[in-house]
Amino acid sequence: MSTPLADGASETLGDWVRRAANAMDSAGLHFGHGTAAAIDEACWMAAHVLDLPPDFDNDRFDLTPTAEQRARLASLLEQRIETRRPLAYLIGEAWFAGLRFRVTDDTLVPRSPLGELVVGGLLPWLDLNRPLRVLEVGTGSGCIAAALAWYWPALEIEAVDISEAALAVAADNLRRLGVADRVRLSCSDVYDALGDVRYDLVVSNPPYVPEASMRALPDEYRHEPVGALVAGADGLAIVRRLIAGAADHLAPGGFLLVEVGEAAEAAEHLLADSEAIWLDFEHGGDGVFLLDRAGALAVDTARAVESIPAGDHDED
Ligand SMILES: C[S@@+](CC[C@H](N)C(=O)[O-])C[C@H]1O[C@@H](n2cnc3c(N)ncnc32)[C@H](O)[C@@H]1O
Known about the structure:
The protein has 316 residues and is of the alpha/beta class. The protein has 2 domains: 13-91, no CATH class; 105-298, Rossmann fold (3-Layer(aba) Sandwich), CATH 3.40.50.150. It contains 12 helices and 9 strands. Helix 1 (13-26) packs across helix 2 (38-49), helix 2 (38-49) crosses helix 3 and helix 5 runs parallel beside helix 6 (143-151). The model is unreliable at 1-6 and 310-316 (pLDDT under 50). S-adenosylmethionine (SAM) binds at residues 108, 110, 112, 137-141, 143-144, 160-163, 166, 188-190, 205-207, 227-228, 238, 316.
């Protein structure tokens, strides 16, 4: 692209961030992969290139990037606009629960509202300071399992995914965060490869986009692994299996914690008889339910629910 973004040597970081945000807004980009607005995405690019913390102080906006930094900023902005690839893939990393994760095209970009619970805990339902057994189904980059291990040293954690490629990235992230000895990774189709261990917490951010909704999603989502997003006609194919197997995998007093995002309306129909608890979030996000063993047994997972088309494109 011959750039309308050509950069002046005296431009401050703040000026660049504003100009980049305007360019991204004008190009009609979608923001939903770690940021919610162009200005936040421009700040993330700036933080990455200038090696600043993601929540860098306002006085950093007065910095004047070097020629090399200006070239890298311009290149990132150009790639983001031209390819519609989420920024996390362009820079190979994303932040989740205050921790840095490597991401590749084989992993979903971490952004689950479950991050708030991972940091804040699950009281009054579960005390994560206790040596509880935790299973994460669909670990992707490993962000949820790794962050749980990081924040809650007493937990015994197991994490599975059906994608070997994603598991390789998860293993790398566990190593980088120094928690590789705290999380057991394995390949499994939901619960299929697991033994008879009972868990106090089964947590999952499974794929939950209805097949027909995929077409309506912005281009950014087409860069993510389809198997991390799509789950059957009503989006609940994996959620049904998580619930159906919960009674066999939960310990007494244990809980299933599942993000269903845009499929929440359909999931509410499925869970109508179960007394599922729908959780509130301080930092945004919804569509997360908590279900105990009795609740899981009360669900007729074969019940058909109407597929609800994706609305505001915040899937997953
Ligand atoms: C929405 S992504 C979540 C990734 C990560 N936990 C996160 O929150 O960023 C769903 C993950 O589930 C995995 N997955 C899809 N179908 C699965 C299955 N049948 N069994 C296990 N994992 C599955 C995908 O490979 C993907 O990594």
